[in-house]
Amino acid sequence: MKSFVLFLFLFVAGLWVTEGQQSTQGPLGATGLPVTREGGEEQESAPLANDKEVLKESDTEVDQVTGVPLFHNEPVDSGNLTTEGESLFVFRHRKCPWGCFKTVSYKKRRCRWPRKWCSRYVIAYKQIRTPCHNCCKGWFRRRQKCIDINECTADPCGAQGTCTNTPGSYTCACSPGFVFNGTTCIDIDECSADPCGAQGTCTNNIGSYTCACSPGFVFNGITCIDIDECSADPCGAQGTCTNNIGSYTCACSPGFMFNGITCTDIDECSADPCGAQGTCTNNIGSYTCACSPGFVFNGITCIDIDECSADPCGAQGTCTNNIGSYTCACSPGFMFNGITC
């Protein structure tokens, strides 16, 4: 009887030491998780070290669009495969995950018959939610998930912008004259670009600017531009207008002068053109002289008439022209009557 018990003990111990279970790792399944195949025949053996499922955990980050864990298409062999088929899986790294899962692998017993001792198993995988890293800026944690913060509820853009919420952030579509500085809509200082140029002084306003332009220039809403004064015909009918940069000039008709604004009549009489022998009358664009007897207006002034040129004394006298008159020295027997001999 003792020999039989000793034989049975040695037989069981030999099975415990020499026999193991081989498990090979198959290709990836439709879910992206490894598929395993069970190999070898069913064996009786010593119990596992822990009679419960043995779990190995590794953090896996979630795709920002689909929410599916991101990992490479193929597992990477750890280089230390054992009869338990241990493998090392490499997962893609993202700096700020939207949420996290744990990929859990565990040894699951596969024995057809209920026996106390069983070493037959396969490696199965499942995913469980787990607390993840701190959520990125623009996200907050809710039930172990990172949820996007809708920053637009706080109206960060203000009255001068329209807020659009984006994943993890927001943008402001600002009104004209404002720009998004990453936080809100702020006024653009257009004057920093000197839009008015040398002919104007820029004043920045909330959402816009104005130019105080130099004379001869006008603000067109963008900059100071030259005014074409000639378009208003400032010289009138008595002049021809020439536009200059910032001003204009009038080439006036005779009898008119440019006073800086238009062509005005020249008061020639103010210069006493007729002299002592005439009375000046100013006309529009000209003047006339009413000359004293013996004088005539030549278009400029009153000049002495050379009456002798008309030979008023005739054959019986010699004419002498005087200022404003003439005299006749008559032949004997003739006399000068103030007109002739």
UniProtKB/TrEMBL annotation:
**Which residues belong to the signal peptide in this entry?**
1-20
UniProt keywords (A-Z) are:
Calcium, Disulfide bond, EGF-like domain, Extracellular matrix, Glycoprotein, Repeat, Secreted, Signal
For this UniProt entry, the molecular function terms from Gene Ontology, in alphabetical order, are:
calcium ion binding
**Where's it mainly located?**
secreted
- Per the record, the domain of life is Eukaryota
Cited InterPro entries: cEGF, EGF, EGF-like_Ca-bd_dom, EGF-type_Asp/Asn_hydroxyl_site, EGF_Ca-bd_CS, Growth_fac_rcpt_cys_sf, NELL2-like_EGF, Nephronectin_domain
Show the Pfam families listed in the entry: cEGF, EGF_3, EGF_CA
| Subcellular localization(s) per the UniProt record | Secreted, Extracellular space, Extracellular matrix
Domain named EGF-like is located at: 148-186, 187-225, 226-264, 265-303, 304-337
Region ranges (Disordered): 22-52
What does the similarity note say?
Belongs to the fibulin family.
Protein name according to UniProt: Wall 2-like isoform X3
Question: Which source organism?
Answer: Octopus vulgaris
